[in-house]
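Reminder: ligand-aware prediction takes two inputs, not one.
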Amino acid sequence: MLERNCSVGKGRRSGADLNEFASVVDERVERNGGKEPFLIGVAGGTASGKTTVCDLIMHNLQEKRVVLIAQDSFYRGLTQEEHDNVSSYNFDHPDAIDVAALVETLKNLALRNKVEVPIYDFVTHSRKEDESVTVEPADVIIVEGILVLAMQEVRELCHMKIFVDTDDDLRLARRLKRDTVDRGRSVDGVITQYTTFVKPMFDTFVSPSKRHADVIIPWAQGENNVAIDLIVQHIRTKLGQNDLRRIYPNLIVLPPNFQIRGMHTIIRSASCNRSDFVFYSDRLIRLVVEHALGHLPFRNEIVTTPNGDRYNGVTFSKKICGVALIRSGEAMENALRACCKGIKIGKILVARRDNDGLPSALSGHRLSSAVVYEKLPADISDRYVLLLDPILATGVSSMAAIDRLIKAGVRQDRIMFVTIIAASQGIHSLCMRYPQMKIITSEVDAGLNDQNRVVPGVGEFGDRYFGTEDMKAYYDGDIDEELHFE
Ligand SMILES: O=P(O)(O)OC[C@H]1O[C@H](OP(=O)(O)OP(=O)(O)O)[C@H](O)[C@@H]1O
Ligand SMILES: O=c1cc[nH]c(=O)[nH]1
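Here is what comes back for the chain with uracil:
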């Protein structure tokens, strides 16, 4: 199977080949254990600090989409009789939970399906009839509740099981405060419920479930940051098994954070206006360009500060140039000029078409490409080259450009392909064909649709950035029938 993969990488590929190839590699990755979302169960007694632990895990995993599912959302609605005798109803027993619905929800999220989570009304002790909360698929799913590790079906779904272990006195004190201050309950009422149900159920179900935990977090007044760091690190490692960077060391993805995701959220939205699209694309472009520059070779250099102290620094290579892939790549030129004073910037224009002769934007899978125009610095073969193109989709355009750079004498290991969104198919193609060339991107996208657009992608970058609307009209004209398409 792998030998077949390798041969796909050698020659020119069509979009269909690429899709097939990508799915074969993805299968391999999946077998390595990464594709499924990572499911964490967080249990512990009442008021043990489960919510704080979940919040901290979510906060620390900024780069991932994390969703939280509360066991409490899955309380069964009470029958009329139970409702009439609610003071003797045991909300701390596993039978109070609709385990089947909770399990089905988690299984669906594990399949990356969108789910509807019920809303439980704690006043009427029933599920809201026509309301639910839509939860979108995520990389990490946290399910939290006192009985999460006590319910075998739920426990078995979890990749990591955490028990938050807090002293009983402390928990009772917290619960007393919470229920009297926040929920307007009487002290007597809280203590009666605690001694009648909460404590016996804790002793019978919750505390024994601790033995199923992979991690037991001692949780007192402060936060146990060491435990949270270890947990977050473990999740990252597990999710990273699905990372293309494990297959291709030449793929460099910017360290993610909420700023980067926030900017992507803006530009990816179909309702983003042009000025925001340009502004936030420019910010992302600046980040990837700066990051790429950080991968240039350097020499050590010591300077003396105004205080007369020595600073052990570096000096970086000045033999660089940019090459913009016309036209979207030109949107990246300003950022490069802003970082590298007086930098030379060459241009390459690539035309793509499919087997039926249609320009690629209007066609299906099978693409070929030809360089239509180029103007490169005369001494490019002595330089490191930042090849600029904001979107890597099939890789067909960039391959034509990279081949041309190599033909012009640029060493493959001196080319950095700089982009803000790279689809996995394009990454597979470029990384296999140019294993020494670096790809620097701010995000990796899942794949391509049958129009070879990136999914989820950003639509047509060039049209959105430069404000051109209906490119179909442009393509209806005659396009360079004389070109030799390989
Ligand atoms: O990896 P690929 O499948 O080749 O697709 C990526 C290319 O598509 C976009 O250009 P487009 O052809 O839309 O032209 P534009 O730059 O004028 O918008 C983008 O800027 C890349 O050059
Ligand atoms: O999705 C895509 C694919 C190629 N080029 C773009 O601008 N967007």
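Residues 187-206 form the longest helix (20 residues). Confidence is low (pLDDT under 50) at residues 1-34, 358-364, 471-482. We will return to this case in the review session.
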